[in-house]
Design a protein that fits this description.
single chain; mainly beta; SH3 type barrels; 5 strands; about 15% helix
Length: about 120
């Protein structure tokens, strides 16, 4: 039998405004390569009101990005539906908030009870 114990520790490891294209490229590559889901905030210009509006998506992933055009395509998951939004300019991305978890498989010895492993008192 295998016993896997997951402990979720949420820590901010990176919270910075990035402007350099090289750093943006590295971040987008890692999000795409590891298929990390994140919340996405973008701003979009609406000609009818002559102003920008902020749009939030709670669950999204990168489909692909093109640094030459400075555009990103996203998968958006909302209410059981998969939506693809294309050609979002990097300058229109306000925030990407990625929360990831780290899982550890415990190595146990004989002197530890199973209740100690499950955090049951």
């Amino acid at each position: 039998m295998r016993f896997i114990r997951k402990e979720h520790v949420i820590t901010t490891i990176y919270n910075k405004e990035i402007k350099e294209d090289s750093t943006i490229k590295v971040v987008l590559e890692k999000l795409l390569e590891r298929k990390i889901e994140f919340s996405l905030t973008i701003r979009k210009y609406f000609p009818s009101i002559l102003d920008y509006k902020t749009i939030n998506h709670s669950k999204s992933r990168i489909k692909l990005f093109n640094m030459e055009n400075r555009a990103v395509d996203f998968y958006i998951y909302e209410g059981g539906t998969l939506i693809t939004i294309k050609n979002i300019l990097i300058d229109d991305i306000v925030e990407i908030n990625a929360t990831t978890t780290k899982s550890t498989i415990l190595e146990t010895s004989d002197d530890v009870s199973r209740f100690a492993l499950m955090d049951i008192e």
